Amino acid sequence: MSRNSTFANQHCQICATICDACAVECEKFKDNHCQECARICRECAEICRNMVSS
After folding, report:
1. 38 contacts 26 by C-beta, under 8 angstroms
2. How confident is the model over 27-51, as pLDDT tens digits?
3. Residues 52, 12: contact at Cβ < 8 Å?
4. For 37, which of 7, 26, 28, 50 could close a Cys bridge (C-beta 3.0–4.6 Å)?
5. Contact status, residue 19 vs residue 50, Cβ threshold 8 Å
6. DSSP symbol at 30
């Protein structure tokens, strides 16, 4: 992104999609570790989407 890559937005979008998928899987498990992972993945996905829209 700092080098104005042609693919920066696509990269951020695919990262958001991957983070969402990880969160869905982690949310299936109720232990603290997996729930924390899901929370962090959701946060990461949101940040990636914000970068695409900025």
Report:
1. yes
2. 999 999 999 999 999 999 999 999 9
3. yes
4. 26
5. no
6. -
pLDDT at residue 2, rounded to an integer: 77
Task: Return d(Cα 43, Cα 39) in angstroms, integer.
Answer: 6
Specify whether the CB–CB gap between 52 and 9 falls below 8 A: yes
Domain boundaries, the chain: 8-53
Q: What is the pLDDT of residues 17-31, one digit of tens each?
A: 999 999 999 999 999
Q: What amino acid is encoded at 50 in this protein? A: N
For residues 21 and 13, is the Cβ–Cβ distance under 8 A? Answer: no
Residue type, 14: I
